[in-house]
Amino acid sequence: MFDKQYGGRRVFITGHTGFKGFWLTAWLLELGAEIVGWSLDIPTNPSGFQALGLEKRITHLQGDMRDRDGLTAALNKFQPEVVFNLAAQALVRKSYADPVQTFSTNAIGTMNMLEAVRATPSVKALVLITSDKCYRNDEWLFGYRETDHLGGKDPYSASKACAEIIAQAYFHSFFGPGTKGPRAVTVRAGNVIGGGDWAEDRIVPDCARAFAKGKAVQIRNPEATRPWQHVLEPLSGYLRLGACLLREKSAGNDTGGLHMESFNFGPPAEVKASVGDLANALEEYWPHFSMAARTTDVLEKKESTLLKLCCDKALALLDWKATLSFAETVRFTAQWYRSYYQSMENDKTTADPTQYMYSLTLDQIRDYCQLAKDRTLAWTR
Predict the structure, then answer these.
(1) Rama region for 288: left / alpha / beta (φ>0; ψ in -120 to 50; rest)
(2) Which of 102, 140, 230, 337 could in theory staple to 89 by disulfide, Cβ–Cβ 3.0 to 4.6 A?
(3) Contact 313, 258 (CB under 8 A)
(4) What radius of gyration, in Å, describes the C-alpha atoms of the chain?
């Protein structure tokens, strides 16, 4: 799926070295796209980007979203047709420690990308990734819709709300009817998990590191409920949106369609699990460490305890809905990490460990797509 839309296309991805970014990069490579990635650095050690050896498979650029001139020059040189903007300071607790970087990267960085796209006529489709935390979280029991209030009580959430407001201002001011701008959207996803995430203060990387060493897991806010979904779920939505935008642009549509819309991508409504539930489910894949002690970290900074999305709009306009159950999401995630740590313990797995992990990652992408097809999900057609 998607190969007809992305095969041979020039695609520019910011934040390609991050968790979502490296999975999106791998998927687009599988689809035959030519990719340039723009990222400040390799955010973690280890990293999924390095584990797959992606630097050798794409044009890898190191750059800052706050560098508008450098970003514009990169787009003008590469002349991409599609842009996926994922670059962000993505950690809530880090946003308290450095709010200035958080706002300048997430809000002003979004503005810089929009300015760079304005100066690059080759761009036909723009997908700006923000976060489910852009919503003003009132701890509702029902899912937030795209028309609900934006806001944020912490710097990270507020910065993402700012990014959404900036994006809509640019869409309507510079990319609207009668302009030559791209078709553009913003997208909001919940807490994604999957192999290759080693960020700080995230439950899955914390569990994987601890279980691999047989150590105790420190769990903060274990009762917090999150809309857990595998990273491939929102990425399938992003790719679906990008493909639809390209078709709309090719058809010469000047108004209507998906242009200037926002979309939620989350798991099925029945997926409801706490941080503690997720840790318990992951633990089953490390049976030797099932008796590892649990410690609970006392929160110093406020984090939301309940947040979920309504994805009716994605279903209605994109024929998109999530594929995996919670159990399947945990299985995909645990199998990736166990394969990685086993390959590190036994370097005879393959002559090139990065090729082994790249192939495993593509296998999970293919398995995911096959499950979606088997379940006759409309977005796969």
Answers:
(1) alpha
(2) 102
(3) no
(4) 20
Q: Residue 186 corresponds to which amino acid?
A: T
* Strands in 86-220 per DSSP E: 125-129, 183-189, 192-193, 217-220
Q: Could you tell me the fold of the domain covering 3-191+228-267+304-380?
A: Rossmann fold (3.40.50)
Neighbours of 204 (CB within 10 A): 25
pLDDT tens per residue across span 115-163: 999 999 999 999 999 999 999 988 777 889 999 999 999 999 999 999 9
**Residues whose CB falls within 8 Å of the CB of residue 152, separated by 6 or more in sequence, listed in order:** 133, 134, 136, 137, 158, 159, 160, 161
E strands along the chain, which residues? 10-14, 34-39, 59-62, 82-85, 125-129, 183-189, 192-193, 217-220, 225-226, 229-230, 262-265, 273-274, 294-297
pTM: 0.94
Per-residue tokens: 254: 């000047």
% of residues, the chain, pLDDT over 90: 67
Q: How far apart are the first and last CA of the chain?
A: 7
Closest Cα to residue 332, out of 357, 367, 356? Answer: 367
pLDDT band with cut points at 50, 70 and 90 for residue 376: confident
Domains of the chain: which residue ranges?
3-191+228-267+304-380
* pLDDT for res 291: 39
Tell me what the mean pLDDT of segment 61-83 comes to: 98
